[in-house]
Amino acid sequence: MITAELRKFAWNDRDVDVDDDGFILQPELWDATLALVLAQTDGVNELSEAHWKIIHYVRAYFREHGAVPTVRAMCSESQISLRGFYELFPAGPIRGACRIAGLPKPSGCV
């Protein structure tokens, strides 16, 4: 398991660097298996279809715009309420979704 204090962890015969908040610093290493490892650090033991819909949306949005979508856009796109987002991503809708999606820490995340 990774914690915010741990800055590196072994995964799939590689060392993965993370920042103090657990965001991976090598996004090119991200894949579905690593997503599950990252999710487990937030207490999410399985990624549902709803998780994957949001993860793929956030990654596509980031590729296209160079930034993460707003919570409002994520709720609108996924048809999931804000409360539902917190149930899916206990670390917070933006923080949790971006961390699991292998994206950099959004500038607005504290």
TrEMBL record:
It holds the Pfam family DsrC. One of its GO terms (molecular function) is sulfur carrier activity. The active site is at residue 109. One of its GO terms (cellular component) is cytoplasm. One of its GO terms (biological process) is tRNA wobble position uridine thiolation. InterPro entries: DsrC-like_C, DsrC-like_dom_sf, DsrC-like_N, DsrC/TusE. SUPFAM superfamilies: DsrC, the gamma subunit of dissimilatory sulfite reductase (SSF69721). Its main location: cytoplasm. Keywords: Cytoplasm. It is found in: Cytoplasm. The keyword Cytoplasm applies. Belongs to the DsrC/TusE family. This is DsrC-like protein. It comes from Koribacter versatilis (strain Ellin345).
